[in-house]
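User: Now give one protein:

AI:
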Amino acid sequence: MKKNLQNSIGKKDKLLAVIRIVLEILIPLVGIFFILDVPLMLFRVSLFNQQYIGLFWALTTTLLFLTIPARKGAPKNNPQWYDLILAVITLSIGCYIFFYFPAIVIRLGIIYPIQIILGILVTIVVIESVRRTSGASVVGVVVLFLIYAKWGYLLPGKLGTSMVPWSRLFQQLLLGADFMLGTALKIASGTVFGFIFFGVVFLKVGASDFIMDLTYALMGRVRGGPAKVAIVSSSLFGSISGSAVANVAATGMITIPLMKKTGYPAYYAGAVEAVASTGGQIMPPIMGAAAFVMAEFLGVPYARVVVVAIVPALLYYLCLFIQVDNEALKNNLKGLPKEQLPRIAETLKKGWVYTIPVLVLIYALFVAYQNAGVSALYAILTAVIISLFNKTTRAYWKSLSNVLDLFQSVSRSMFEIIAICAAAGFVIGVISYTGLGLSFSQILTMAAGGRIIVLALLTAVASVILGMGMPTTASYIMLAVLAAPAMIRLDVIPIVAHFFVFYFGTLSMITPPVCLSVFAASSISKAPTTQIAWQAIKLGFAGYIVPFIFLFNPSLALVTGTILDKIVVIIFTVIAIIVIASSFSGYFMDIKLNILERLFGSLFTIILVYPNPGLVNFKLFGLKGIVIIVLFLFYLSKRKRKTSVV
């Protein structure tokens, strides 16, 4: 009997393993079909987007329940009876949407009992899937909005809404165009999937080694080299992965111990990695999933979002880079020995071909103006073709286990984003269906008294608070429908308003008390979370002031103004970033600053970034600011010469 029991258990495990493999293959295939719209291309048959979305969500979430346990610490790939029930329910809901949605559209105003039942079940499935991937904080937000949808009519004033019957609410949660099957999950199932697929293929064929070797070859020998390697590599990997926490976990395992070995304190090493990885969310050309959602919300090409993002992102990393360099100067931290580093010429000779897929991606996005998802597929195809010309990487494709491993990596990389975007769909739907977005926007506008600076401060604080404990994509989606409209009502350019809330939602990753990137860095560096968090705020301070600069001067984000306007604003903002970074770290031009000079530098930065229409072409900086710039820099350069003579 015992032997029979073991045999039955073994058969069950094998069956589940086969089911997982089938799902891991189907998920990428359905994603590619979605991006290319294969039925229309081959058979002239057009399917609703909701059919693709429902099927992709169901396949991914089913695999999630068969892979990720309900309890933290429990072994993966070991589903219990309740996991199997959830998997069957999820797949059934997806099949219902895929096969019956065309008929449902015709009778969408009629509520059927099956839709109420499936609406209840899809609510349970979405909440449980997001709990397993993102934690209780996101669940709390979703439940709060569902409570508001049902009982919001009891609230007084502008927050009050009309009564929504349970039957109508559950039907909308299941099938509503603004709910789960709406924009967020559409972008995740298509565009974001394409870029995640590209990232996995790109790294699997050897690009990860090339990126790390190149950054070490370029930065390894300079003072504080390992920290600078962390900045460059984390910005590149973070831009590809789309997840700050995942990036800390991946690159931090290498960079944090190396920084500590070089001489950086553990808390400082953790902070550098947390800030650099968080910046990957705002770093073009491949930003996090939120950037694709932004393009969809605004109805603009993704290339437009990238152009707006480039200068602020570089300023963010400039602030981090200067402070890291000054910290190395302060502690006399040398770079790594030459013999421990790869040579630049050899690295480029071996890996220059890995730049081709990225160039193809950029060409498809910015020159050919292709759809972002299609552009990602072009880059994937290029990466595969290039790998076939290399003996080592060509062997990768000869192994079936390698190919299955690639499909597995792609499918499992979609877990969090699909769960988050499904939950975000609930939030967006409730906000739209109840009119909360308009009400919240009016409340913010009234609280600000119509003054943009007050509204900006309120929005920044609200964005950081609402983003705490939430992945960047979910945070941005919620802020885009709640906070951004208030800024647009006061004549802020829509893309600028969206970038403003996007920045502060992203910065919640390093802002206490709930700062997920810091938590991940703390677990690797073994330093106190609080210590890392406060250091991270200093290192990433540009992220807190640059949004205010481009809010009042969109020329910084290349949105408005003449070429001269853009050049002037960028130059003066660069100076402001250099001064504030130097004030924080205590060094400027290799000389140590005293406390008064550091305080003056901080005050000087405030003068620079405060809106002041003093000159026609210097809307950000008045005449006083320019005079102070010249005098302060002259004083410091003169002091440097004296120090050099001594």
